[in-house]
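Help: read this over?
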Amino acid sequence: MFTLPDLPYAYDALEPVMSDRTLQFHHDKHHATYVKTLNALLEAAGKSPHTLEAVIRDASRSDDKKRFNNAAQTWNHSFFWVAMSPRKETPSGALETAIGEAFGGLAGLKKAFVAEGAGHFGSGWAWLVADRGGSLKVRATHDADDTLTQSDVTPLLVCDLWEHAYYLDHQNDRKGFLEAWFDALPNWRFAALQYAAAQGEGEAWRHPEPTASAEPRQARVG
């Protein structure tokens, strides 16, 4: 079954945008619950999937909303953690060029990303995606929905728009959270690898495969 991936940094590594307390609740409680619930659903159905991506696509095709929601939220959160870096980065190379072509530069992308996320009604996710031709777009998805069921795009970055992602640190100021997040936390090196994969160069990120143990691990700290 699937296990809760370790955080790739310490709980306090994303401060002040995301606090130690937020990371502990978000990763160890919210994300862990999705993993635990998904495993219980798969066990009850007698399913032993090889990839989480297959679970999500199958649940979407069969309209199994409970399995889809928990599988997609497991994937979305795992992607979210690796799409952030505790060290401030800037895009470069082909990705920087694509950002310039699509948005006029990083400032234009920030404006579009923040507007999409702040204007999104209810819970969900704000994504930077690339299509097969290399063009960039900003999209938002509702609730657990993600980009895996959208065959025309590859996700490069994502920011969680659910209130538990920002409320302890920013209260109801989602726009302020998104602005601070965009300035400090995107993992542009990871986004560049995803951008290359979108154009057929290398493999896009995949969720860690299931293991023999269904017990979620605690986050690595330090």
Observations:
- The two ends are 27 Å apart (CA to CA).
